[in-house]
Design brief:
Elements lengths: L5 H11 L6 H15 L9 H23 L16 H16 L5 H39 L2 H17 L3 H13 L8 H12 L2
Helix pairs in contact: 1-5, 2-3, 2-4, 3-4, 4-5, 5-6, 6-7, 6-8, 7-8
């Protein structure tokens, strides 16, 4: 039988490996690297233009994510009935803006950005699969040990991960029965977080 410590250990591993899922941080770095790689002698890109490159990428990612989350007002007209993964949408928005703003660098530069985008998305898919496997393992351990609160915490994290991929129906189906097991204690943060996420997944 596996030890109780396995549950928090699995969650710690997941917390430590989630950096690649931060699409904003990833594409912020890619944008800075792209700006630094632009032809230095190009008189078409003065200093303020590079700042505008970065700002435009951030605006595009913001609007792409808000098309799904609807938490903040978008800068451009809202995108109605968005479907799919908000993470992938933000990555594509950043890529498309960078390509559009670096057309003066020639087709080879755009091809390099295409390859980089494909690699980033492939790594993200691999990470999602790895994290989902760890979440499933943690929930199985919690079931064996009757650790319902740990199971709820893991289900919330797993459901949030699914939601990031646009798999909202799966996320809600995963979290609903775990949350429904509880008949009291609805004022504690774990249950409040679960209820909030379920409302967001509707």
């Amino acid at each position: 039988m596996r030890k109780a410590v396995s549950i928090p250990l699995v969650l710690m591993v997941l917390a430590g490996g989630s950096a690649r899922a931060d699409v904003v941080t990833d594409w912020n770095l890619i944008t800075v690297q792209t700006i630094n790689a632009l032809t230095p002698a190009s008189h078409l890109r003065p200093g303020p233009t590079s700042i505008l490159d970065l700002a435009t990428v951030h605006v595009a990612m913001h609007d792409a994510i808000q098309a799904f989350e609807h938490r903040y007002e978008s800068y451009a007209p809202p995108i109605p009935a968005a479907t799919g993964s908000p993470i992938a949408a933000a990555a594509k928005a950043a890529h498309d803006v960078l390509v559009a703003r670096t057309l003066d660098q020639g087709p080879a530069f755009a091809t390099a950005l295409d390859s980089l985008s494909e690699r980033e998305l492939a790594l993200l898919v691999d990470e999602y699969a790895e994290q989902e496997a760890l979440y499933r393992e943690a929930m199985s351990i919690a079931d064996e040990q009757g650790a319902e609160l740990w199971k709820l915490r893991t289900a919330v994290s797993h459901a949030r991960l699914l939601g990031e991929q646009g798999r909202r129906t799966e996320a809600r189906a995963l979290l609903t029965p775990v949350y429904g097991w509880f008949t009291e204690g609805f004022g504690i943060p774990d249950l409040q977080n679960a209820k909030r996420l379920l409302d967001e997944l509707r």
